Amino acid sequence: MSKGLLIVLSGPSGCGKGTIVQEILKDGDCAVSVSATTRSPREGEVDHVRYHFITKEEFERRIAHDGLLEYAEYCDNYYGTPRAEVEAIRASGKHVILEIEVQGAFQVRERCPEAILVFTIPPSIAELRRRLEKRGTESAEVVEKRIARAQEELPLAKHYDYVVLNDALEDAVADFRSIIRTETMRPNQIDWNRLDWNL
Ligand code: 5GP
Predict the structure, then answer these.
(1) What's the CA gap between 92 and 95, in Å, rounded?
(2) Is the pTM of this model over 0.85?
(3) Rounded CA gap, 163 and 26, in Å?
(4) Which residues line ligand 1 (CB under 6 A)?
(5) Each residue of 137-171: pLDDT tens digit?
(6) Which atom of ligand 1 approaches the CA of 18 most closely?
(7) Can you list the domains of the chain with their CATH numbers?
(8) What is the rounded CA–CA span in Å between residue 3 and residue 190?
(9) What is the CA radius of gyration of the chain?
(10) Cα–Cα distances in Å, from 8 out to 5, 11, 33, 96, 114?
(11) Residue 198 pLDDT more than 80?
(12) Which terminus of the chain has a smaller tally of CB atoms within 10 A, N or C?
């Protein structure tokens, strides 16, 4: 059995990454990595589902013990990917999706050159603002911070392997699915022993 792919999905907060991932998870061949964060849970967010909510002290302890594959500070909070979780998913043969911001994405590329970096973009900043406001989970001040951050991040999309426009959700999901499908056709992903070639 070949190891699962390591897929990084970035894109401005509110651009619909989470929704795309939820749709892809229904296919059954991917799992999403549960990040650690020092951010407070939003209403309805359950610990250990999308995030492990931990203190700043615990986060810094994990950095010191090299327990994180990558981490970054984003809008005054730490976010990071637990290394062991990612490895366990890949070893099981499933593809792992890391839904992370750009600084973390580039750290992953450095440490794991086989990682596939995908950037989701909203059709416009105005649409991003509309989606963030509609979500209604952040104060006006935090929305502004996230939009400012999006404007810094968008030019970095050029350095990713793939860019997916998230205008109509079903198109974005289809595009993301086809990236995964294409990447599984690389020779290092093929389980050669399973082929009956009679050689
Ligand atoms: P939110 O607070 O909206 O859940 O996430 C804020 C940003 O942090 C998003 O862009 C999200 O993709 C990113 N993020 C979530 N988990 C991680 C992580 O483990 N590492 C990094 N570098 N970014 C993360």
Answers:
(1) 9
(2) yes
(3) 22
(4) 13, 35, 39, 70-72, 74, 79-81, 99-101, 103-104
(5) 888 898 899 899 999 999 999 999 999 999 999 99
(6) 12
(7) 6-194 (3.40.50.300)
(8) 10
(9) 17
(10) 10, 10, 10, 8, 11
(11) no
(12) C
